[in-house]
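Re: that chain you flagged

S.,

Sorry for the slow reply, it's been a week of failed gels. I finally had a moment to sit down with the sequence you sent. For the record, here it is as I used it:
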Amino acid sequence: MTSDNSGSDPAPARLTVGIVSAGRVGSALGVALERAGHVVFGVAAISDASVQRARTRLPDSRILPAEKVAARSELLVLAVPDSELAGLVSGLASAGAVRPGTIVLHTSGANGIGVLAPLTERGARPLAVHPAMTFTGHDEDIARLGNACFGVTATDEVGYAIAQSLVIEMGGEPVRVLEEHRALYHAALAHGSNHLVTLIVDAVAALRSALMGPGLLGQQLVDDQPNGLAERMLAPLASAALDNALRRGQSALTGPVARGDAAAVAAHLTALTEVDPRLAAGYRALSLRTAELANADPALIDLLEER
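Prediction finished late last night. Pasting the structure tokens below so you have them in one place:
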């Protein structure tokens, strides 16, 4: 069964799907859509890594130019980086590659449906469907989709129904995001995920410096390789802190900043500066925000605001 563009069936049982491109996100969504019963007939892939990913994850799909993928698609998934999306949409529109009635879905978190306007004006149905998940290019990407929320934006209730159905079929949870809130939505996710990586990398670097030197009998030596002693020491603490924050909110704050211990914080800043002044600057900025949340003693805030 193929799509019915009459509007009577907002969530067809089977769609002919084309994907541009076979990056980490596009290939993972392609697998999820195939598992839901849709047919991914073609994928646009340019780099060697994308070609290999398409052949491995979507072996029954043909590797075709983007215009040919678009021309045959009932559901066209645009999974290119945010910075490339507008140019791709403009090019497809200028080439007349997308048929009226085609569902055009992009996966950009920062963009809503406005970026698809050149195709919408030619009769396409625009959807912004962003998986709120980090993708590594490994097999766990596909499994993680089953636990992910997807931020969806559409023009009308029929569009939302289509997006909701597709996300549920892929195992995710659809969440409506208003067009005017897409930038704020994306900023919040970037702040809570990308900056978390930065925080952990900095903490691991400091912990490695602290653990250098002779260890206990049988203790693993500290080096600069991932998944070492510093990571194992930090992992349960960081996991517990994240879990507590998500379940208990601001009441999960602990530590010297939350207690208003200015002497301990000053000692931290001195020690971190000796390791790397940039690391200390990151600690200072986050400590100041923590102090503000905790309504800490003004003396501590003054310390953290020093330049």
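What I noticed first: Residues 1-8 have pLDDT under 50 and may be disordered.

Talk soon,
D.
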